[in-house]
């Protein structure tokens, strides 16, 4: 399985920031991993014009319906039309800011699959849940509720993003990441014959300085990177670590 370095630009980036993509591609013309950047929707088609077999472009969310009277929303079919191959779903910021439930995330994932795209479904516990010893229960419930029955390894990526590690500079220990990723693999195996082929990404304060250590953890097939995906030098360092893993 080729590993995946995915960047989530969140609500960051304008035309000028496309220079970072040009710098990234110049520095890493033939990486041994796949690269994906999920910019804000306003940059999607401009970034898709730079896509290659090594650099893919994705959306950060979509509406579960194909089209209709949903002001401000974007469908998976529209993201595909703009050049996206992937869509991030159920990010903890969407779950918190927009009250997204597991069942809504599941509907969105079905829409992404129907549009022929790959769904990157995010799960992760809060700090209070980890402190209460509920991490695996929370993640198991999110996985069961958010991943549709029709999911396949080709069309579905799972991202483990502990909420308390996002944008904080804090990360779980490698043993804690290994425990969750092993659990995710085992739970997927209970439902999907091709569970071993699902890519499992770790996300939350991944940087060039900690990437190699995280990528050495069993069942970590890449990263979902926020802040460090905005600068070519930082994301390039993570791509280099993943290429060497
Ligand atoms: O939320 C994330 C990616 O989706 C992680 O964000 P940071 O890499 O900035 O911690």
Automatic annotation (TrEMBL):
Cellular component per GO, a single term: cytosol
Catalyzed reactions per annotation: L-erythrulose 1-phosphate = D-erythrulose 4-phosphate; D-glyceraldehyde 3-phosphate = dihydroxyacetone phosphate
Database matches in Pfam families: TIM (PF00121)
Keyword Cytoplasm attributed: yes
Example GO molecular function: triose-phosphate isomerase activity
Domain of life: Bacteria
Annotated active site: 91, 161
Pathway noted in the entry: Carbohydrate metabolism; erythritol degradation; Carbohydrate biosynthesis; gluconeogenesis; Carbohydrate degradation; glycolysis; D-glyceraldehyde 3-phosphate from glycerone phosphate: step 1/1
Subcellular location: Cytoplasm
GO terms under biological process: gluconeogenesis; glyceraldehyde-3-phosphate biosynthetic process; glycerol catabolic process; glycolytic process
Enzyme class: isomerase
EC number: 5.3.1.1
Keyword set, alphabetical order: Cytoplasm, Gluconeogenesis, Glycolysis, Isomerase
Family: Belongs to the triosephosphate isomerase family.
Record function comment: Involved in the gluconeogenesis. Catalyzes stereospecifically the conversion of dihydroxyacetone phosphate (DHAP) to D-glyceraldehyde-3-phosphate (G3P).
Protein name listed in UniProt: Triosephosphate isomerase
Species per Swiss-Prot/TrEMBL record: Cereibacter azotoformans
């Amino acid at each position: 399985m080729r590993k995946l370095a995915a960047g989530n630009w969140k609500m960051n980036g304008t035309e000028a920031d496309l220079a970072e993509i040009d710098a990234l591609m110049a520095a890493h013309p033939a990486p041994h991993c796949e690269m994906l950047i999920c910019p804000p929707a306003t940059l999607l088609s401009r970034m898709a014009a730079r896509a290659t077999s090594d650099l893919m472009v994705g959306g950060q969310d979509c509406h579960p319906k194909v089209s209709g009277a949903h002001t401000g929303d974007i469908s998976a079919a529209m993201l595909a039309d703009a050049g996206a191959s992937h869509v991030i779903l159920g990010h903890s910021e969407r779950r918190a800011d927009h009250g997204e439930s597991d069942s809504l995330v599941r509907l969105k994932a079905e829409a992404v699959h129907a549009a022929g795209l790959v769904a990157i479904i995010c799960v992760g516990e809060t700090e209070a849940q980890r402190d209460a010893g509920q991490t695996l229960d929370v993640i198991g419930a999110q996985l069961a509720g958010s991943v549709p029955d029709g999911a396949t390894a080709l069309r579905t990526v799972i991202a483990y993003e502990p909420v308390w590690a996002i944008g904080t500079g804090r990360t779980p220990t490698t043993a804690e990441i290994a425990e969750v990723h092993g659990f995710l693999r085992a739970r997927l195996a209970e439902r999907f014959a091709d569970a071993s082929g699902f890519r499992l990404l770790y996300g939350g304060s991944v940087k060039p300085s900690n990437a190699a250590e995280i990528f050495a953890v069993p069942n970590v097939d890449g990263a979902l990177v926020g802040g460090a995906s905005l600068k070519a030098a930082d994301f390039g360092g993570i791509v280099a670590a993943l290429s060497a893993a």
